[in-house]
Design a protein that fits this description.
single chain; mainly alpha; Four Helix Bundle (Hemerythrin (Met), subunit A); 0% strand
């Protein structure tokens, strides 16, 4: 058996890394610190990059998808994946801006509300990637996995 596209293999990266980034973002929002900021940054980069790869390979899968109600499911699945990547990108830009500010003034630390805003974007990205995964499972297995 061959896999006609890499999408089924790649979708697990944004799921794992964006969920991990959300947990790290909660910890960073609560306690601050360089460790949690770095955890969020690494996981967010990997999760967002994985999301971009999943979106690109999903286009190939869309061409071969078939079954009842597939068009509507594929549309919603793709839209949830796109929103996850967009929110991941927003969080990355915000985190990069905070990092630039911190490097210019090493004694400075982001305020709790700045950490909370980044965490909100990351948690939003994780929520959308979960929705995309649920719809993907529904299309493949017939259940909301």
């Amino acid at each position: 058996m061959t896999i006609p596209a890499y999408h089924p293999l790649l979708v697990h990266f944004p799921i794992a890394f964006l969920l991990g980034a959300a947990l790290g973002a909660l910890a960073w929002a609560a306690v601050g610190g360089d460790f949690w900021r770095r955890v969020v940054l690494v996981m967010l980069v990997l999760g967002t990059a994985g999301g971009v790869a999943a979106l690109r390979t999903g286009e190939t899968m869309e061409e071969i998808a078939e079954g009842p109600n597939v068009e509507a499911l594929v549309h919603d699945h793709e839209e949830a994946g796109e929103r996850a990547v967009y929110l991941g990108g927003v969080a990355l830009v915000a985190l990069a801006a905070l990092e630039i500010a911190r490097r210019r003034r090493p004694e400075w630390t982001p305020a709790w509300w700045a950490r909370a805003l980044v965490a909100a974007a990351v948690i939003g990205a994780a929520g959308f990637v979960l929705r995309a995964g649920q719809l993907g499972g529904l299309m493949v297995w017939g259940t909301g996995a």
